Structure formats: structure tokens, C-alpha cells
Amino acid sequence: MIELRELTKRYGDRVAVDGLSVRVQPGVVTGFLGPNGSGKSTTMRMILGLNAPDHGEALIGGVRYSDLNRPLRTVGALLDAGAFHPGRSARAHLAALAASNDIPGSRVEQVLRIVGLSDAATRRAGTYSLGMRQRLGVAVALLGDPGVLLLDEPVNGLDPEGIRWIRELLRGLAAEGRTVFVSSHLIAEMALTADRLVVIGRGRLLAETTVAELVAAGDDSLEDAFFRLTSQATDYRGVGAS
Ligand SMILES: Nc1ncnc2c1ncn2[C@@H]1O[C@H](COP(=O)(O)OP(=O)(O)OP(=O)(O)O)[C@@H](O)[C@H]1O
């Protein structure tokens, strides 16, 4: 489980994340929705100890990321699909990570198979398409067989096959009892992928509910529900969008 307690982050006089308290449960896919700049990435970075909160805390299984013994074995993350050494092969990249995290080398071949990169494993990551880089990022997240997965916009730039692949993978990982927390701009995609939703606007919690309950609240679609919830929480919406 991921637990956020009054999580708060300021950049100068702008509050990026504002007293966010949420529990993300295991066994289901939880979608993390919010307009651009609402604080999703900042929240994920704080969960992963990459940004320090100004107030509150983020706990993974009751423990802060910085206090985890073997972080890759507890939580896997996909934040930036481009972040690989372009001259290294996928296999070399995964093998180096496994070695430095006490993960058996045999796990490298397993995750390559799971993400469908076995045949391309010796190619330099710099030659990979966006979809292949995304798959390599997922392989890194799965390397330690973690019980908690955090993915920031995993379907960005993917083709329909890649989107379906991510959707089925995430649902399968949740069905195994893992905690899966995934941010996205694609509301229709979240309707297909997520069981629960956390919606934020200007860093604040707007809704924490199931997809079914949110749509049942009198809206025609999840998209309508999203616009209703976030209508007061963006700085930039034009007249045609709500
Ligand atoms: N390093 C930083 N320095 C200053 N301001 C920042 C920094 N990182 C984020 N912000 C600001 O914090 C707010 C939240 O940004 P964040 O990237 O977390 O939102 P987001 O919901 O992930 O947005 P998007 O959907 O566009 O990716 C924004 O106003 C952003 O400009």
C-alpha cells in the first residue's frame, strides 16, 4: 500500500502539492488523474524520495522510500522512458541494475520476456523506438519483482498495441495483489485500465473513488466527470473545453 499523509510541496510561492492524503490499495489499478501542472509528477517523485516534501510524508508499506532496505525489490517505477544510456543494450542495462541491487541475473531474462524485448535484448537502447524504450522502462520497474508499482504516463506516445499491452500488464500485476498507481492524461484509457481513481487539481485531492462511482454521479462519461471536478482547478482552460 502507498499512503500519503498531508503531503505538501512548494516551489517558491507556488504550492505544487497541497496537503494530499490518500491511500492507494493493493490488488487494484489506481489511476492518478489531474490537469497539466496539478502535481501528479511531483507527488510521484516525493513517493520515490526524489523530491523532499515541505510537510507530510509518503509511505510505502508503512516505510519512507529512503528507509527501504532494497528499494527496487519493494517499489518499481517508470518515470522517464528516455533515461537510458543510449550505447548500452537492454540486457546490459538490466544486468547492471540487477547486480547493484542484489537481484539474481536470471531475473533479467524473465523481465525481458515479460516486456517482449528478448529478441531485441542485445541492441543498443539508443536505437529503440519510443514503444521499445517504454517497454525497457517497464522491465526496469519489474526487475525486483516489487509489490508496488508507480508509473507516470506509461502510455504517452504508444501505439494502440502498446497501449493495450500496458493496460493488460497493469491489470495482471494488480490481480497478483500488487499496488499499481498510474498517472495519465488519457481519461478514456483510465476508464479501461483503472478500478479506482485519485483525481487532483492544483495539488489538492478532488476525488478518491471508483471509476464506476465517479461516472454514476450524473455525468455522461468519465471525461464529463473529470471536467466537472477540475473546472475550478486549472489556470488555462479555454471557453470551448467544458
Ligand atoms: N522543479 C520545479 N521547479 C519549480 N516548479 C516546479 C518544478 N516541478 C514542478 N513545478 C511546478 O509544480 C506544479 C506541479 O507540476 P507537476 O509536474 O507535478 O504536475 P503534473 O500534474 O505532473 O503535470 P503534467 O500533467 O503536465 O505532467 C506545476 O505548477 C509546475 O510548474
From TrEMBL:
GO terms for molecular function: ATP binding; ATP hydrolysis activity. InterPro entries: AAA+_ATPase, ABC_transporter-like_ATP-bd, ABC_transporter-like_CS, P-loop_NTPase. Gene3D superfamilies: P-loop containing nucleotide triphosphate hydrolases. Keywords: ATP-binding, Nucleotide-binding, Transport. Residues 2-227 form the ABC transporter domain. Belongs to the ABC transporter superfamily. PANTHER family: ABC TRANSPORTER, ATP-BINDING PROTEIN. This is ABC transporter. It comes from Couchioplanes caeruleus subsp. caeruleus.
